[in-house]
Design a protein that fits this description.
- With 226 residues, the chain is mainly α.
- It folds into 2 domains: 101 residues, no CATH class; 96 residues.
- It contains 9 helices and 2 strands; from the N terminus they run ααααβαααααβ.
- It has a two-stranded antiparallel ribbon.
- Helix 2 runs parallel beside helix 4, helix 5 runs antiparallel to helix 6 and helix 6 runs antiparallel to helix 7.
Length: 226
């Protein structure tokens, strides 16, 4: 079974297996690849340095990522994996150059107007939930370990969703989406047979719930450099 989240995590360091049939993962690769190419084209060539230099650079980058991860944990939410990958590579490029590159205008744009005022924890929850449902709809009935894991994750999400609905505030469409998702989570938690699994997967794909979750996340737009 294709795991969207694992594929995207493996794609960043280049260890993901390909090609992939998942449309959303292909779009992720295209958008993230465009971001990385924009970063690479904006920086001057990295000169040759001795091995000791790169060892020191690796230690600096490792320490920085540890601090960043700790900061993320304290805020209890993640923010856009594609941009995080681009930022990490941008740091390597910046630290590895002798002279700082002249400032350039960004070639990407994050559109958040449609979710202005929506709590970031709700946005992060929708992002995780979207990936969870995409993975769930691809589970084969014979993969009992994946079914059991999905039931456990559904139980955990049910414990969180009440708070997320409160945080959604005046975003009525988001609350409606979360209500629908809550019903789906209850069905996942109480699955009793392979027939129920297949029926639920079909109904999820036909309902548009995954698309609704995607609609209330930041959108990445590529813009031409002026």
């Amino acid at each position: 079974m294709h795991d969207c989240q694992k594929f995207r995590e493996d794609w960043v360091p280049g260890t993901a297996e390909g090609p992939v049939d998942c449309k959303e993962c292909r779009r992720f690769c295209e958008e993230a690849g465009a971001i990385l190419r924009a970063v690479a084209s904006a920086a001057p060539p990295i000169p040759e340095f001795p091995e000791e230099y790169w060892n020191g650079l690796d230690r600096q980058l490792h320490a920085m990522l540890i601090r960043e991860n700790a900061s993320r944990s304290s805020h209890a939410y993640w923010k856009w994996p594609a941009l995080a990958a681009a930022a990490a590579i941008a740091v390597v490029v910046a630290l590895g150059t002798i002279r700082p590159a002249p400032p350039i205008e960004p070639q990407i744009k994050i559109v958040e107007d449609h979710i202005q005022g929506l709590d970031p924890m709700v946005v992060a929850f929708l992002e995780r939930s979207e990936l969870f449902l995409r993975n769930f709809t691809k589970i084969e009935p014979s993969y009992m370990a994946d079914v059991d894991d999905s039931e456990a994750r559904a139980k955990q999400s049910l414990m969180e969703i009440g708070e997320k609905k409160k945080l959604a505030g005046n975003f009525a469409p988001v609350r409606i989406t979360l209500d629908e998702y809550e019903n789906v989570l209850r069905e996942i938690k109480n699955l009793d047979s392979s027939e129920e699994l297949t029926d639920l997967q079909t109904r999820i794909l036909a309902s548009g719930l995954i698309a609704n979750m995607k609609a209330y996340q930041p959108q990445v737009m590529l813009v031409r450099q002026r």
